[in-house]
Structures are given as structure tokens and as C-alpha cells.
Amino acid sequence: MIIKEHQKELAIGRDATRLSAVLTISSPHSPLIVFAHGFAGDKNEKGLFSSAERYFLKRGLSVLRFDFRGCGDSTGSFIKVRLQHLVDDLGSVFSFISRDPALRELPLGFVGFSLGAGIGLMMRPPVDSFVF
User: Fold this and answer.
1) Closest by alpha carbon to 36, among 98, 83, 103?
2) Rounded to the nearest 5°, which phi and psi values hold at 22?
3) Distance, C-alpha 46 to centroid of its chain
4) Whether the Cβ atoms of residue 22 and residue 64 lie closer than 8 Å to each other
5) Structure pTM?
6) Paired residues of 89 in beta bridges
């Protein structure tokens, strides 16, 4: 079960594009896993990411799930989205992590589902390990 005191809703981005995200911290020094959803999905990925989050939290890992632009609760138009926009979105997520003093020193992992995995490969995010 997710403990609400350790879950935080975020809006990532500085320009017109705001990415909706949920950060759930297992403990202050636990490794952080970033989840990237598939084509036309969202940060819950029809329950798959929510269930995976609970699995990882029970094992002492923290999770950041987000919606690409035009999907879920993020701003933007899905119809106008191009692959480079999604690469930029994932870059914004990793930039957010690198600027946050509490997150930037954590070991980092990545889970990409379907198109999210491809975007991760296109970007080559700065993670300690990849999990697909």
C-alpha cells in the first residue's frame, strides 16, 4: 500500500508544457526508478504502473511516474506530439531529478513500457541501469 505522506504530485516543466507526475518515496536514500508509459498511455498504464509501483515500494525503491505531453493529466495536444517532443519530456523529467537536492544523489533506474522504452533508448537517460 502506498503511504500518502510519501507520495507527492508534481508538475514538471517550465514552458507551456507541464508534465503531470507522481513521486512516491520509499525512504530518503532509496534508489529511484522512473517509469515512462507507452503510446497514448498515462502514468498509471491501466493499473500496470500503479501495481509495479507498489511492488517496488515494498522492496525499498522509490518511483516517479509521469505523463508525456498530451497524455493523462499533462498539458499539450496528443495530436501534435512528435517523437522528439517525447524525448524532450523525458529529458525534462531527468533535469527535474538532477536539480532536486533530495533526488539527484539517488541511484537511478528506468522502466519504459512500449513506446516509453523506445523513447528511453533514443534519449539514453543518465541511469545506473535499465529495466525494460
Assistant:
1) 83
2) -130, 125
3) 15
4) yes
5) 0.89
6) none
